Structures are given as C-alpha cells and as structure tokens.
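LOG
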Amino acid sequence: ISQEVAEKILFIPDLLAYMLTERMVCEYTIASTSQLLNPETHKFDYKLLEAVGVSPTLMCPVVMPGTLIGRLSESIARKTGIGEIPVIAVAGHDTASAVAAVPASSPNFAYLSSGTWSLMGIEVEKPIINEVSFKNNFTNEGGIEGTTRFLKNITGMWILERCREQWKRSGLDYSYDDMVRMAELSEFTSLINPDDPRFANPENMLREITAYCEETGQAVPASDADYVHCIFYSLANRYKEVLEILKPMSPHPIERLHVIGGGSRNDLLNQLTANAIGIPVLAGPSEATAIGNCLIQAKSAGLLTDCWEMRRLISTAFPPKEFYPER
C-alpha cells in the first residue's frame, strides 16, 4: 500500500476520532493488534511495514490512551449544539478498556474477559516474548499507561450460542438463565477441548460435542442440561490449563482471577472456574469496556491520578462478586 492509493491508514477508533476532530492519530491499544507495532518501543516497526508492503508514511503518530486528540470540529459542534468539547483517545481496543476496569487492588492478578470469546492474561510493564509464549500462542497487546496485556484467546460462549441456535430451531428457546439452571441440575463430567478447531464453526455443534465424547471414550450427553454442563465444565477446565501455562511466565504471583464482561454474570461458571484453578475468582463488572472507557476520560480530565485510583473507584462503585474454591 503506497501513497498512490491512500493518504493515511486509520484504525476504526482512529477514524471515528478523525471524523469528530479532523485530526489523525493512531491510538496505542488498537495499533498493537495490527502486528505491525514493535511491542517494546510502542511504535510502528519499519521492517514489518516493509515486509507487508505498507509505506511507513501512511501511518500516523502513536498516542497513548488518555491523550487529548483535539476538540470537536466547528461543524459538528454547531450541528450538535454541545460546543467544541475535548475529544480524548480512549483505549480503542475493547479488551484494553475492559482490563482498565478490572477492580484489582494489586498487580498480582490475572484477568478473564468472558463473552462469546474469552481472553485470559496478565497486565505487565514489559512484553513477554520467548519460546514458551510463541509455542502456546500468547500475544502482547497494548494496555493503559503504556502497559502490555499479555494474553491468550480462548473459545468462550460461542459453543453454547451455537447449541442454543439449534435448540431454538427445534422449538426450545432457552434463555441464558434457563441454561444455567439446567446445568446446575446436571452432574455430567465429560470434557471437550473448547479450542479444538472442530468447534470453530461446525454445521451441528451438538453432534460435534457428541462425536468428541465418543472418540475420546467418554460418556455422551444424555440431555440438553448435560450439554450445557459439559460446555461450562470444559471452559473451566480450559481456563485452568491456560492459567497453568501463564503462571511460570508471569513476573508476579497470580493470587486471584478477575472475570469481566458478560460472562461474569454466570455464577455457575465462575464457581466451576474457582474450583478448577484453586484461587479466588472475582466477577464483574459486566460492562467493563464502557466503564474503563469512561474512567480513562475522567483520568485525562484530571479527576483521577492513575489506574489504581481508577480501580479503587470501580471496586467501590461495582463491588465484584467473590467465588472461592469448594472442591
């Protein structure tokens, strides 16, 4: 890509900021997902850009979350009637904003952003790049205050959502509360590997789970409740596996797991996870992305001093629900 076909490259959050302010910047957290940013310098890597045929002149300066981009353009200010208010670069990547809202009291935590997909990781000052991280497909993405989110993607509620679609087509319209109650009544303990490629997008998710259990010599789900419990039980087990890989690479001990996002409302899965990993699970807030976004702006306005003051405020306003290992 050269300047013959484009003037600048903007990521979607940066495009929105440009439409509001007419100023072009590249926010750090979203830029870090491009695989074109040097995780140590926090700048675009010219060698990587050249390797994929992108002219370095197309890239905008990298700015950190909380940076004042500019003020609302005159035309938009006039049309909206809200004046030329400041426009702040928030953590443009949704997980970065969510991790900013983890109500932790010390660095000794791991987080799990739980939704259709799950992301488990830690917040560190420097990127972690070694053979173990490469082998296990961990990535270094940008966080607030120049930190790095060292994390791994895990399949989340996607598997359950696909099962729910199939049940709905057969006339069984289960709500999420229904499915949690169903799973609570089941003691089914066969396990699948949620990250097995066969569960990425099969034609029939229920049939794929059945086949996996048969092929691995395990009991096959006998009811819809068994399928749901199998998925929750397997996710908790997978979280344990990933956490065990993560622990030796972490520069600090991991004393608790913070679950944020929509999945934090699933008490059964939170308890199964605490049982599996053997450390406390603190669940919430469920709307972590929006909360983190707001407080980054509050910090930029001088209302908060740093991420830890942000997190103390979040912990007070949205107290996490605690789950302790039972068995």
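LOG (cont.) second protein
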Amino acid sequence: MFHNRTEGKSHIMYGEYFCSGYFTEGIHKQLIGLSAFNIFLSVSALLGNTLILVALHKTSSLHPPSRLLFSCLATTDLCVGISEPLLVLYWISDVYEKWDICRYSLAISFFTGYTLCSVSLLTLSALSIDRLLALSLSVRYRQVVTLKRAYVLVTIFWLTAVLGASFYFWNYNITLYYSYIGLSLCLMVSIFCYTNIFISLRRRLFQIKTSINHVKHPTAIRMARHRQAMSSSMWLQLTLVVCYLPHGILTNLWTTSPSMFFAKQCMLTLVYLNSSLNPILYCWKIRQVRRQVKGIIRQIMCSSN
C-alpha cells in the first residue's frame, strides 16, 4: 500500500514517514471528502456482500467447492467493508495531527488490507483453475475437486496472506517483493487457465456445429454452462485487475509530494471499490445467485410492510 525507496525499513519507520503531516499539507478538505466516500463504500460492501453470502448459502445448485470459493471471495469483500474505516481513521488522524493514532491505524490498515487483497487474488486464481478442471476433467471433476480439498486450499490462502502481511512489522520491502511475486504468479495462472478454456470451448463448439441438431446436442448444453461459469469468474478477475492496477503503477512511480500522496489515496479507494462492485457482478453473471438475491429482497420488503 505505502512505498518508500529506502531499503530495510520497519513499519515504525514507515509510520513516522507517512504520519508526519507533510503529505497532507494543503489537501485536508480533499482527504475529508475522500473519507466520506470511503465510508459510503464501506457500508455498500457490508450490505452487498452480506446479501451475496446469504444467497450463496441458499444456492444448492452450485458445485460445493465452487460455492466455497465464491463465498471466500465474498467474505474477504465483507471484511474489507469492516476494515475500510481504519483507512479513514488514518487519513483523519493525519489531518488532525494525532500521530499515535495515525501510526497504529496505518499499521493495522495495511495488515488487514494486504491480507484481504491477497486472499481475493489467490481465490480468483483458484476459481480460474476450478473452471479449467471442470472443463477438462468432465465426469471426473466432482471426484477430483472435493469440498474437503477446497477447504484446505482456502486455509492455505489465508495463512499465506497473513504471513506476507506479517513481514510488514519486520521489513516492509520483504512484504512488497512478496506481493510482486504473488501477483505475477496469480496473473500468469489465471491467464493460462482462461486462455486454455477459451481455446478448448472454441474447438469443442466447432465440432458440435458440424453435427446434426447441434442446438439440442447434450455437449452443446454442457459447453454453454461452462462458458457461463467461466464468464462469471473472468469478469470478477478483470474487475480486480482494473481496480488494483492503477494503485500498483503509482506505487512504482512514487514521489514525495502531497499531490502524489492524494493521487495514491484515490487509487487505494479504487482498490476498495472492488469490494462494492463484486456483489453487482455476482447478480449479473450468476443466474442462481441473482434469483436468490431477488427472493431475499422481496422477503425483506414484505416483512417491512
């Protein structure tokens, strides 16, 4: 999240560096306005992802391991809504020169934000692998991809993310390099999986079109389901990249000026915006979830009347 070119610095050094008042000089009103917007994003992420988690729990038609991965992603987005006020607290304490609060809120905000973003990225990569296995393994998919293995994988994701975030309290640069390596690997895995899925679907659909009554062909129906499932996870992946990439670019172009600091906080807000956008994508791309969400909203409206 925050970057300094100096090597080998601990979180205390970075806390003193970014809680000095220099970076907020002349941008107090902008930061207060940005804080208000982030509070709105926090509420929307909490409400939206709570609704999605309830809907996923009621959606029995999804394969349980896939549903667990979607639930893990929605859980991280829900936790982002809970932790986002920590970032607001950092900005406000910096504006009003409450340096002790500033340093603690910065450290906790970084730790939680890094952990949750890492789990989200790892989960989306796992969803791309899940979609590739569903297409390539066919009838063996449910035997290979089991709920128990999915739980083990999710646990590894959380432990890996917490480990990477914990390095911040020892040496920030290790955490930074850790994130670069993890981000690169996750993106390469996702690109590899979706490229293979796309090529395989195109090849199989071409073969089906050469057959008689291809519209009602059982394989055609199955391929349509695979394409729909791939589309939902790929849209989630693309949205994450669009929301995260500007912040990553500014991190590498960092210069010590209040204008650059404010620009980076705006890009950080874009990262948090991802957690409010994901519930919309769930409802748009996953028909079963959309149906459950509509039912839940109707129940809430009926009970309030």
